[in-house]
């Protein structure tokens, strides 16, 4: 499963769920509020901009937003909501592609850094963020915490969500730090629809070391975009890294 195959036309169309799921106001609102604050009046660059879930409302707040995106179908879906003049997009890999200009904020939301399947690629993603930032610039990552405490010896999978018509489970390869997310969607028929995506999971401490290698320091870490305290029980985190002002 390579990323181009995963984020195809069908995935791009299914990704947008206005008003619900990731697009629910209680999820999207705090995300945009926090990113607008962190941009500090400057321009923002979104790695893996997708269909513009965050970029479109952030641009609507007056923050100039540029994106980098690997999937052409995702970019085409974004173009139904914002044109190239409003939100420019560079088609390419977020670990290596370069956008013109300098930014006060680079951000990477909803676990997307884990789509890079090697530690080396993830480190390069940090370095690419640093490449786009001026002194004092910030790199923000939203990422889930690996749920390995739920894995007793011999078990390789965890069910992380169940709701009517949907089951989400992850299968782990702890030797390689890989996980495959399986999404089962079903109705009253006898057949279910399965989609899958591979990831390389990252512990917060490993993420901090990647940041250090790229010249960042951890500025803050919270459990969500609203600023809840990050604890040992938190299922995800929003981590803000900053380039020194005297770089």
UniProtKB/TrEMBL annotation:
Pfam families: Methyltransf_25. GO terms for molecular function: methyltransferase activity. Keywords: Methyltransferase, Transferase. Residues 45-137 form the Methyltransferase domain. It comes from the Bacteria. The keyword Methyltransferase applies. Coiled coil: none annotated. One of its GO terms (biological process) is methylation. The keyword Methyltransferase applies. Gene3D superfamilies: Vaccinia Virus protein VP39. This is Class I SAM-dependent methyltransferase. It comes from Streptomyces malaysiensis subsp. samsunensis. The lineage of its organism: Bacteria, Bacillati, Actinomycetota, Actinomycetes, Kitasatosporales.
